Amino acid sequence: LAELTEHFPKHQDSKQLCIRIARTLTDDVGLMDRMMKSHHFPATELARRCKLPVKTVEKNRASIIFLTLLLAGDWPRIKDYLAAFERRNEP
Q: Residues 51-85: pLDDT tens digits?
């Protein structure tokens, strides 16, 4: 976890973007199941769905996977924190 926090995005907009991509992945059960079973990160599909360059998704791959696992797990306080962060940083 220490290494992950070192590489986690520092800017608010980048954090917000990672959370949005992770929510997109978590909300799509088929895509999430495919990733968990094949251990293949669907960067191209996520980039298409979020209307982002593939390079942006790939650059934040570790953070997106980490956030996806948190959102998919049974972590109510962390989910509440992420939701509050999103609300606080809405445009």
A: 999 999 999 999 999 999 999 999 899 889 888 98
Tokens of 45: 């599909």
Q: Report residue 44 as tokens.
A: 């191209």
Tokens standing for residue 81: 């924190």
Query: CB–CB of 64/21 below 8 Å?
Result: yes
Spatial separation of the C-alpha atoms in residues 42 and 12, rounded to whole Å: 24
Radius of gyration (C-alpha) of the chain in whole angstroms? 13
Name 41's Cβ contacts closer than 8 Å, sequence gap at least 6: 35, 61, 64, 65
CA distance 79 to 87: 12
Q: What is the DSSP letter of 51?
A: T
Looking at the chain, how many residues does it have? 91
- Can you tell me the distance from the alpha carbon of 46 to that of 60, in angstroms, rounded to the nearest whole number? 12
